[in-house]
Specification:
The protein is α+β, with helices and mostly antiparallel strands and 627 residues long. Helix content is 40%, strand content 20%. It contains 22 helices and 22 strands. Strand 7 and strand 8 form a beta hairpin. The chain binds adenosine-5'-triphosphate. The site of adenosine-5'-triphosphate has 14 residues, from strand 1 and strand 2. This is DNA ligase. Keywords: ATP-binding, Cell cycle, Cell division, DNA damage, DNA recombination, DNA repair, DNA replication, Ligase, Nucleotide-binding, Nucleus. It comes from Yarrowia lipolytica (strain CLIB 122 / E 150) (Yeast). GO terms for molecular function: ATP binding; DNA binding; DNA ligase (ATP) activity.
Amino acid sequence: VCAETAKKLAEEGSGHTHGPLLYRTIVDTFEKIEATTKRLEITAHCAALFLSVLKSHPQMMATVVYLCINRLGPDYEGLELGLGESLLMKSIAESTGRTPAYVKTEYQKLGDLGKVAQSSKSNQRAMFKPEPLKAANVFDTFREIAQTTGKDSQNAKINMIKRMMGACQGNEAKFIIRSLEGKLRIGLAEKSVLVSLSQAFVTFEAENKGKKVNPDDITAGEEMIRDVFCQLPNYALIIDAILENGIMRLSETCKISTGVPLKPMLAKPTKSISEVLDRFQDTEFTCEYKYDGERAQIHKTESGEMFVYSRNSEDMTVRYPDLVSIIPKFAGEAKSFILDCEAVAWDRKQNKILPFQVLSTRKRKNVNEEEITVRVCIFAFDILYLNGESLLTLPLAERRQKLKEAFTEVPGEFLFAKSMDTSNVEEIQTFLDQSIKDSCEGLMVKLLEGKESGYEPSKRSRNWLKVKKDYIDGIGDSLDLVILGGYFGKGKRSQWYGAFLLGVYNQDSEEFETVCKTATGFSEEMLQKMYDKLKPTVIETPHSDVSYDSTPANLPDVWFDPSTVIEILAADLSLSPVYKAGIDQMDRGISLRFPRFIRVRDDKGIHDATSSDQIVEMYQNQAALVG
Ligand code: ATP
């Protein structure tokens, strides 16, 4: 249907036929975007590209969007680029006839493999002018490279890259290599891409109808795309729906669906029960146990398939065959559903919750149900979809009722999150203490009644507050930070990295900003594990998307290609002349005092780390309390 609509639109929109969409068209826009830092100009260039693609090759829209945000498909497909620099350097050397030493020196000089690729290629004379690169082929090759695994995959990848490099003209090599490295470095944030998409579609539809563009429609379209994307994070499905039914009908035609993990609702941290009571004054709210396991979004599709997705929209179905086996026991007559749950390690002999550390010892690959020793119990706390119907806008009280009506508890395997609806301080305090005794992290306090208590996908909402017992005296919450650099240890620890430079993620600039150095809380076993994990990610120069202080005394011994998120607890936050977190908003960066390692967060990608906005908010809350 989409292809048909697309063809019709192409004919109507342009009045003539076109050859394939060339990669050059996209790269020309990348160059224009790279040349400016002004957000309005960036979105205008991006929207112009989208509009021209809509007119000439509407069936290519999703591919073009993915090339612009440098992804290979929806997150839940799990296909990723981000090839290592040694493989890329080898590919550049082999495809341009340069020596590895030359490529290395150029890299040290330019600090950007994309530029190295382009300069290495520039003097190369081709015998024949190659056929121009097609956008679809570039994207398909990227996907193929990402899917290539196993023995000899390195060579296969290098060969595919060489083939593309051989066909590159002009500045294409620069962007091919940057895309493969996982960093386009043009300052095009996904937020701007969403704005541009709306601009392009609204303009396209207005032009087709011979009308003037209404700026209000652009804003409305943008909001709609953003909201729908949180429910259905798949550009191809959204673009198909817009092409089919128009942008203004998007929220009716494109909704939460089973088989597509939606971005989970998140909670705001609080430091005390009185802070919770202040927030929820004069409202109906509920306290639930905050279980300490792994978030699990459980789907049963209309065709009976079952999926389990992580907090990060990763497909964990094969990691949890035991969990999948439990589903029919609790699902009763429910034909299709999406549940929001926490999977927690469970002691079947003593019938009690085991700590998170036990859960994290479960195998992550090649899991065989018979061999599983750490069993899980699912604690369901929300339902988002039931029998073909979205429940997102229902108040929490009604969702909870539906959850309890449609599903049946199975002791030790599937239970409803323990809850208490009260606004009495003593009762909440007792419930909090009890949650800790029952091996939970504390409480989640949620708005229960009214429109505002609907489920807000992807949002860190003030309608969900977390109260973690351990953190009440600290800064209210732990932080999830990206490891950016390492320092060799001293004495016994000198064979490993003994300390790490950590950063937060700035979602606007799409940069990592340094926030602290930590050496505390690691066992020797953990340091060794960290060394083995991080050593292969060492890079010669920090990536251009890291904002750090370049005074030699403040530099780490090695830089890493950001890959790992760790949870950190700190005493408090302070302004710092060295660190960069939140510097756009505060003039000076924010840093952590007495940061201490808690655990590795394998369930978080680097872009899910604590954001600059969050740390600024925490700093301001702390300042308000002190002030
Ligand atoms: P965030 O998701 O807020 O970035 P995080 O992943 O570090 O932070 P927490 O700060 O521990 O997680 O708090 C939210 C998480 O708590 C949820 O993602 C979910 O996995 C877990 N959780 C446990 N019990 C509940 C509950 N009753 N309601 C909602 N979430 C719960």
